[in-house]
Amino acid sequence: MGKVYIVGAGPGDPELVTVKGLRLIQNADVILHDRLVPKELLKTAKPGALVVDVGKSPGGVGPSQEEINKMLLSYAARYELVVRLHGGDPLVFGRGFEECRYLVERGVPCEFVPGITSGLAAPAKYFIPPVLRGVASSVALVTGREDPSKGVRQVDFKKLATAVDTIIIYMGASAAKEIAEELMAGGLPPDTPVAVIESAYFEGESFKTTTLGALSSVRNPAIIVVGKVVERGSRLRGASCR
Ligand code: SAH
């Protein structure tokens, strides 16, 4: 019986992976990876390693979570070192926890190796801090995606609006406008600064700032940041790029 390491690959820059994560990728017998994982990292796999793409484009095809769990189990039975490589951090809107639970329940040893989550890395690239003394002392990482089984959003944006200083939204591209409306209905002014970072560290990357009132179309994958920190970040970035 092998061991499964559930590893975060970081946000997309191949240098933004942990030393431990990279060492595991280089030594793995099998790597099962997401779509948003830097190709350069996969190239460092040892010769003969099995590299399997289990990623899914939004709304697209790919193995189900149950299938991924079963693959992990069967590879662990045959190979010594199995890496399940997630984009960003495996425990932040990844299914790392569920995968580990499935394996542990079946007697497979498993370990988490954290990664830098896109919700913190992408804003940092554009000088935006999640918290900042005197400006923002709390941050929420939230999903903007609806629960398909219930047809309602999992996060109550109206309640969240004034409960935290900075809101970082994952998977919010398709519902950006509705989310902005809910946040305004919850008490945030329309001129609240917003940053949208699309495809950070990947081809087609884009960064823009806007306001809640003007937020419209956003391309997937994107991180949306709402709060005063956006304006502070933009100011510093402007000064540093001069
Ligand atoms: N575990 C990942 C998140 C997986 S959920 C992490 O910690 O980063 C997938 C969502 O993450 C995307 O819909 C998008 O909102 C965000 N995301 C991941 N990588 C991204 C990137 N390079 N640029 C912008 N958003 C990204």
Describe the fold and architecture.
- The structure is a single chain.
- It is built from eight helices and twelve strands.
- The chain is globular and about 55 Å long.
- It is of the alpha/beta class and 242 residues long.
- The strands form three sheets. Strands 3-2-4-1-5 form a five-stranded parallel sheet, with helices on both faces. A five-stranded mixed sheet has the order 6-9-12-10-11, covered by helices on one side. Strands 7-8 form a two-stranded antiparallel sheet.
- The structure holds S-adenosyl-L-homocysteine (SAH).
- S-adenosyl-L-homocysteine binds next to helix 5 and strand 12.
In short:
The protein has 242 residues and is an alpha/beta fold. Helices cover 30% and strands 23% of the residues.
SSE layout and pairing:
Blueprint (H helix, E strand, L loop, with lengths): L2 E6 L10 H9 L2 E4 L5 H4 L7 E4 L11 H14 L2 E6 L9 H10 L4 E4 L4 H8 L13 E5 L2 E2 L4 E2 L3 H4 L5 E5 L5 H10 L7 E6 L7 E6 L10 E5 L1 H14 L1
Parallel strand pairs: 1-4, 1-5, 2-3, 2-4, 6-9
Antiparallel strand pairs: 7-8, 9-12, 10-11, 10-12
The structure holds S-adenosyl-L-homocysteine.
H and E order = EHEHEHEHEHEEEHEHEEEH
Distance between the termini: 56 Å
Largest sheet: 5 strands, parallel
Average pLDDT works out at 95
Number of discrete helical segments: 8
Rg to the nearest angstrom? 19 Å
Structural class: alpha/beta
User: Which consecutive residue ranges, at least 5 long each, have pLDDT under 50?
Assistant: none
Beta-strand residue fraction: 15-25%
Present as ligands are: S-adenosyl-L-homocysteine
**What share of residues is helical?**
25-40%
Number of strands: 12
Instruction: Provide the spatial order of strands within the biggest beta sheet.
Output: 3-2-4-1-5
Shape annotation: globular
